[in-house]
Amino acid sequence: MPAVTVDDLTVLDRIAAPGLGDQPRGVLQVTTAPTGYEGEGFPVRRAFAGIDHRHLDPFLMMDQMGEVDYAPGEPKGTPWHPHRGFETVTYMIDGVFEHRDNHGGGGTITNGDTQWMTAGAGILHIETPPEWLVQSGGLFHGVQLWVNLPKTDKLMQPKYQDIRAGEVKLLSTPDAGVLVRVIAGQVGGNAGPGATHSPMTMVHASLEPGAKLELPWSVDYNALVYVLNGQGTVGVDGQPLRAGQTAVLGAGDFLTVQADQRQESRTPRLDVIILGGEPIREQVAWAGPFVMNTKAEVMQAYEDFQKGRFGHIPAG
To answer: Where does the Pirin C-terminal domain start and stop, copy by copy (predicted)?
Structure first.
């Protein structure tokens, strides 16, 4: 799992240990992601299936794309499609993905890069593997997260952030056993590069066998821990957690994740995505690629798309 790696974690800024009065977050729920297919047929795990929206807000859904090693001719993407009312965050861990939208945004992401697209009032976009990767095959692994927008921002002008792997804030634990990548938001005053409309934090952490992560977390945020690969425990009571599972955490000042001493040889460490945000607490009306506040607004989105008000697919 390339993402962003560091040979010597001792050179990184350290995460401060919890203070004497800090309260750990307990585990409210553990779910196992069902598998499915997205776009033109690439495999995904639906990370948030079975979790009440009250525990997810401001997040809507998250798919783990892959991990899959494609044979030549097998790599797949998505065709052109619309969005309105939220943001898509595509974090590429292994492999290469190309993005284009009808507002001129886009680019290629690989090994720790992130595409952060604010659909706002309406956008058309496409995500595909490059032609050379389709011909050669190769490893494909990433995450796509949908983040809701508050009512005041749902019809904002669409925009696009291209976050390079080298911009991600890298931290470590006091014993240098964990690599923490802050993609957006902040951890203990250390900010990631992603600019967000809904206050939130997104982290990818890699824990060496037996390593423990005590991560400071805003008391105003919810907290979700999803396992990309490996196995370990979450919470001070050591709730077991393995690949494809999500832990929903309760209130507190920090969260705890620990890797098991023994990991699979294919995945020598525990990798987790940690998310949290300030709940928007607004009504959600969601149908397909549109996330609004009322059913009437969703129907208007469909009408606007069908009448070409989102714009048109660029030539070529």
So the answer is: 202-311
Predicted confidence (pLDDT) per residue in 251-267, tens digit: 999 999 999 999 987 77
Question: Which letter, b or e, does each residue of 119-151 get, where b requires 16 or more Cβ atoms within 10 Å of its Cβ?
Answer: bbbbbbbbbbbbeebbeeebbbbbbbbbbbbee
Q: What is the pLDDT of residue 151?
A: 97
CATH of 9-280, one of 3.90.226.10, 2.60.120.10, 3.40.50.720, 3.40.50.1820: 2.60.120.10
Q: For the whole model, what pTM was predicted?
A: 0.95
Handedness of CA 225, 226, 228, 232 (dihedral sign): positive
Q: How far is it between the farthest Cα atoms of the chain?
A: 60
Chain centroid to CA 180: how far? 14
What pLDDT, on a 0 to 100 scale, did the predictor assign at position 103? 87
**Averaged pLDDT of the chain:** 93
| Alpha helix positions (H), 137-233 | none
- Find residue 90's DSSP bridge partners: 115, 144
Q: Are 276 and 196 in contact (CB under 8 A)?
A: no
Structure tokens at 41: 């047929």
Q: Where do the domains of the chain lie? A: 9-280
* HSE value, Cβ hemisphere, 13 Å, CA-based, for 307: 7
Q: Going by DSSP bridges, is the β-strand pair 13-14/169-172 parallel, antiparallel, or unpaired?
A: parallel
